[in-house]
Design goal:
Blueprint: E1 2-6, H1 11-26, E2 31-38, H2 48-76, E3 82-86, H3 89-99, E4 104-108, H4 123-131, E5 135-139
Parallel strand pairs: 1-2, 1-4, 2-3, 4-5
């Protein structure tokens, strides 16, 4: 069994990773892959230097998240890979699910922006559910 767990560094993502690890243990050990997406936030009126600084900052944050996820996988004795990719979050998540041949995508109901606290699914989660062909397990 292969699970893909997108992670954005939020508490929602930490909870989702914990739930995925629990599912994996109950299933006798699934492979857990994780993807951290660096969105392209540079817009036309932002200069190249600002874009580079923003990208460097986001990449550094992503490296920290990657290490935390790798450590959590190692602590639990699970095998898996952690990827950092740039692009549109929903597209990168779906492409990575295909790449790792995920049986399920395990996502939080919301991420950094906390839509779940308002009782709605986050935008990325909705897009992955609606655009993808794979089953999605949503963690609240």
């Amino acid at each position: 069994m292969n699970l893909l767990v997108p992670h954005d560094g939020s508490e929602f993502s930490n909870k989702t990773l914990d739930q995925a690890l629990e599912f994996s243990q109950k299933m006798g050990g699934a492979t857990i892959s994780s993807v951290i997406v660096i969105p392209d936030l540079c817009i036309s009126f932002v200069g190249q230097d600002e874009c580079r600084m923003l990208d460097d900052s986001m990449r550094k944050e992503a490296e920290g998240i990657k290490k935390m996820v790798e450590d959590r996988l190692a602590e639990s004795g699970m095998k898996g890979e952690v990827y950092i990719k740039a692009g549109s979050p929903e597209s990168v998540i779906l492409e990575t699910a295909d790449q790792v041949d995920a049986d399920y995508i395990v996502m939080g109901a919301a991420g950094k922006h906390g839509a779940e606290t308002r009782g709605v699914l986050g935008g990325v989660t909705c897009k992955v559910i609606n655009m993808g062909k794979r089953s999605v397990i949503v963690i609240k």
